[in-house]
Amino acid sequence: MRVVLGVAGGIAAYKSALLLRLLREAGHEVRVVPTTAALEFVGVPTWEALSGQPVTASVFDGTDTVEHVRIGRQADLVIVAPATADLMARAAAGMANDLLTATLLTVTCPVLMAPAMHTEMWQHPATAANVATLRGRGTHVMEPEVGRLTGADTGPGRLPEPEAIAAAALALVEQPERTADLAGRRVVVSAGGTREPLDPVRFLGNRSSGRQGVAIAAEAAARGADVTLVAANVDAALLPPDVEIVPVESTADLQAAMRERAGRADVLVMAAAVADYRPATVAEAKVKKSGDGLVIDLVENPDILAGLAREARPEQVVVGFAAETGDAAGSVLEHGRAKARHKGADLLAVNQVGNGSGFGDVPNAVVILDRQGAVVGEVEGTKADVARGLVDAVGALLDTRAAVDVPSELSAGATTLPG
Ligand code: CTP
Prior knowledge:
With about 425 residues, the protein is of the alpha/beta class. It folds into two domains: about 1-175, Flavin prenyltransferase-like (Rossmann fold), CATH 3.40.50.1950; about 185-405, 3-Layer(aba) Sandwich (Rossmann fold). It is about 35% helix and about 25% strand. The chain contains 13 helices and 19 strands. An eight-stranded mixed beta sheet has the order 12-11-8-13-16-17-18-19, with helices on both faces. The longest helix is centred in the last third of the chain and has 23 residues, at about 385-405. Cytidine-5'-triphosphate binds near residues 270, 272, 274, 303 and 304.
């Protein structure tokens, strides 16, 4: 594979020499494109010796072959490590004032950036906005590691280890082949977190980013399904292409959107974090400070998943999630089993949340239970991996039901028929 390794000007540039070695040892052809500032840290001879290819930071070298366009067009994968605040700002703005940024404008392959900078720079709203812009355009920006930085300071901003960067980057291009096994199926997925209004400016909400539901919608669409994503307050930058988006805000909106589409759906997935309670009354005007505390009466919301499962047609597959932390009364799995039985969904993905797991841009692990609480699968990895495992389980269930529906005279020889 042809890899472009962009190196921006930070002290962590030396770690990219190790990353380059790893990529070469794995058999990849690597073209290093440093910025001029990167060459202050690690020089051209190091990059040339380790990559076995010519190295320049300038668009004015190799003009006869129009290098920035050629390098970009030929690349199968681009890794920028370290990605400094300055490099990401220039990339987000679409600037092309050196060979690396010019190359970034010409590539169509996956791009992974591994940031490294001081904590203040990483957390600055300008950097956060640039990262959001880049992610919104499909660039994969890793979270920096937390740890010792250049000086005496510690915090988020350390370059992830070369092995982790290589693994994350190669995973982007080594996607397993997908078959269109869901072609002709209608899949409706809810994602995000509902918000319950208190008054015109305030709401009660939760921390769900919607990433897991988005990944499920994207996976189902990639496998040929006709997908609708009912998105409760999901960041627009995360929304997948090739999927119908229905934006909703409150639990009542989400329930109405799901019920409206349930009749025509083959598969319903409730990945949204639904507020269990809502304020009993919504004030028409902004609630003022009383100087004496505030008590809010809450009433329970309807259980959307349980309702969808109750009203489901026999051939329909209804999938839910169980966000559990485990407590004195039971483990994550025990709570999951009890939930599987009382929700009545065909599949329930039990997900441990809290302590950095589950919510946001973090890896995930789920155990998939059937409606009796028996384990039918386990998946661990990125949210895309979990989505793939879950959609596999849905596909298997649809196949089993289709096989059962086949009239007996047509089913002779079918291998998927249950005994
Ligand atoms: N869910 C729902 N309607 C609700 C609450 C949850 O449809 N009012 C769905 C979620 O989308 C998820 C599943 O039910 O698919 C389980 O959600 P979870 O928050 O784990 O469980 P709860 O039912 O809220 O139960 P508890 O908070 O008591 O664990």
